[in-house]
Structure formats: C-alpha cells, structure tokens
Amino acid sequence: MPEPVSSVSFPPAFLWGAATSAYQIEGAVREDGRTPSIWDTFSHTPGKTAGGEHGDIAVDHYHRYRDDVALMAELGLGAYRFSISWSRVQPTGRGPAVQRGLDFYRRLVDELLAKGIKPAVTLYHWDLPQELEDAGGWPERETAYRFAEYAQIVGEALGDRVEQWITLNEPWCSAFLGYGSGVHAPGRTEPAASLRAAHHLNLAHGLGTTALRSVMPARNSVALSLNSSVVRPLSQDPADLAAARKIDDLANGVFHGPILHGLYPESLYAATEPVTDWSYVLDGDLAAINQPLDALGLNYYSPSLVSAAKPDVSGPRADGHGSSEYSPWPAADDVAFHQTPGERTEMGWTVDPTGLHELIMRYTREAPGLPLYITENGAAYDDKPDADGRVHDPERIAYLHGHLRAVRRAIADGADVRGYYLWSLLDNFEWAYGYEKRFGAVYVDYSTLERTPKSSAYWYGKAARTGTLPAVETEL
Ligand code: IFM
Questions:
Q1: Does residue 423 have its Cβ closer than 6 Å to ligand 1?
Q2: The overall pTM is greater than 0.85
Q3: For the chain, give me the number of helices (H) and strands (E)?
C-alpha cells in the first residue's frame, strides 16, 4: 500500500536547510576591499548574460544578512549553506587575508548561531578572483595551490564556529561550462583546458581538504558538492549504452573517480585521448586528491537522457546547460542529448524525483558508509505576487514534496542521508540567465529588494519544524 501522503516523517536529527552562493546574492562587489571575480568580468561583458544582468547589487544580502537570517529563523530552518567570496577575503587570490572581508562572514556565522541555525560553508562556488584567471585560471596547477592557501585562511577564521565545510560546489560547471562551452565565466571554449581545469579542481579539493584539517578542530566535517548526473541511455542498444557510459565518465567519474577512489576511470582516459594526454596528472596527485571525506554533498535537479549521435540527425542540444555552439562535453560529438519526458520547470528541466532516489542509491553503493547530504535541490517557476501581495507557488511545493519523498524512500532503502538544502533560500542571480529564473522559496521584488516568503517557504518551514512533510494541498 502506498504511504499516506501526510505521514512522511524524517529521522529526528535530519537537517532542514536552504542554500545560496555569494555572487548570486551578496552584491556589494566593490566594498571592504573586494576585487572582481571572473563572474564580475563575465557578467559585465556584453552578450554574456540575459539582459546584461550582473551581481553588482544582486539581492543586497551583504547589507541585509541580519534580516535574511531572521527570516530563516521565523520559517524554522535548521541549517544554512552559503559560500564565501574568495576575492572578498584575498583580493588578489594570494597572500594575507583582508580582515574586513572575513568579518562579514564572522558576523553572518554569529548571527546564524545566535538563532540556532547551523552554518555550512562552501569555499568555492565559481567566483575565482580575476587575478588568478589572468594568470591562467583553473587549467593552471598553481590555482590549486592558491585555493589551498585560501582554504586555510577561511578555516582558521571560521573553523571554531562552523562545523560543516564544503570545498567546491559543482566542479563540473566550473570546468566544463567555464572552459568548455563558455556559457559560464570565464567564458573560454577550449576542450583540452576544460579537462586540465577538472584535474586542478580535483587537486584543489584534495589540497584544500588537507589545509582545512590542519587548522580546524577534528570534529568538523569536510565534504564537497557534486552535481553528479543521472545519465540514462535512450535504449539498450550497445551504442546508446556506450554513449551513456561516456557521459557518465565525463560528468561523474572525472570527479568521483579520483576523489573517492584515487583514480581516473580507464574508460575516461580512452574516451578523451583525442583531446588530452593527461600529462598534467603528476606523481602524487591522485593520493593528494583521494583524501578521506566526512560526507558527500549531492546536488540534483533533473536526469539526462542520451544516445549515440546519428550522423543524419542534428538539432538543438538538450543537455540543459545553456546554449552555446560549443559543447561542454569534450570528445563527445558522437553523443546526442534528448529531452526527458514529463513536466518541466522554467529552466526546461524535467521534474523527475526518481532521479534523486537513483543518485542517492548510486553513491550509497559507490561510497559505502559515507554520510550524504542533498546540498541543492529545487526548481525555478514564474512566480508572481497576487493582488494581496502573496506569492503562491503550488508547483514548487509539489516539486519539493516529490523530491523529499524520494529522499525519504532512499533512507528507508538504507541510504545515510543526513540533510537537505533547498535551492534556494531567495530568488537570486541565476548566472547567464540573469534574474529571470526564480529559484527562491522567498520572493524578491528586484525594484525594492523586499522579501516575501512564497507559500513553499511556509510549507518547507513546517516540514523543517515538524520533521514531517505537510500535505501538498495544505494552505499555509
Ligand atoms: O543557481 C545554481 C547554483 O548556483 C548551482 N547549482 C544549480 C543552481 C540552479 O541552476
């Protein structure tokens, strides 16, 4: 018998959080010593973002963080995942820290702790200091060493109060959207450089983990957040299965291979041979990357459906990662992406909670014993206030309900999922899409920056306070 909808309960210690990232919400890009990151440069380059929008003000969280924390507390959230702007802390990407930059995060953490909300810090959510990109960016090995230095600085400053640490958010996007398709900063379209970037991001994770642990109390947890793809083949045809395998290597194996198992898959080396010889993987790198983790963060939105490309078929790419004439997938011109069937969000991403269950179970097998967190999950919809100024978003409630049920089902199936961070707390700057895609549980009026919790925020807050999913039709 299917479980009655209103009785889906979570373990008492389950963390109910929301997530954001620095460039998407902070604004204040020229304050207190902060210098440009690659996203400042990219978003101010004509033609790179929808309507030329940028994060100069974003949702002004830098000045409104106290109100935002108060809102989280009123909703009943137990945890908040945010990222640190590297160029606020180290304006040139190297050398001593700017204390004014760190002080902002000290104040934010203190405010969260005072309200009983657990902070989770992400060190890198895509905003590389521009000076480091000018020196070559992630395709250069030096950037990994610079990241370790930065990790140590932030660990020293906040490690006494923040227990949950995430080194990198979605390194796939940094490497392959940033240096492959160029739809993200720094906007380079160099397949070989995208694979070098992936390796140096892995190295940065490993060196950063070691640096954090050298300065933080042992009780703290170090993880990273992967946007691992759930890759499904269009058919059981061997060519389609091979296409799915290739994308799985390029989306997942390229990161979890070295991080969890200390090796890159042989099939990845073989598939990428036309593009790179991997000579930048130096002796000792794989051991440096393969640091024991305390947890793994999974970000999930939608699955991918792939097949072998048919020579006579061409058409728009359907891999959901923005439009570019360049592919983010190196050496994969023989793979075609298909739209998965079903209802879609404003991003065009299919709503499919079964993918989240599948992903969790995969990592339960891939990394037995490693606690998992869903560090991002959510949906963009075309939310608008009604005549009374209230924002009703029943589609988002249904989305959250479906995906949280999938998480609960995975726990029942033996997965050790410890928490869930809704993406996102607030409507914000959705990268190349500017402000037109609203992922927030809290609506932001971009002309006044006024915040209005949507009905999904109240629904999710109730789930957080009770540990049980309210019925979807609950009017809150
Ligand atoms: O907004 C992004 C976030 O920065 C990283 N993960 C996906 C989200 C939605 O696209």
A1: yes
A2: yes
A3: 16, 13
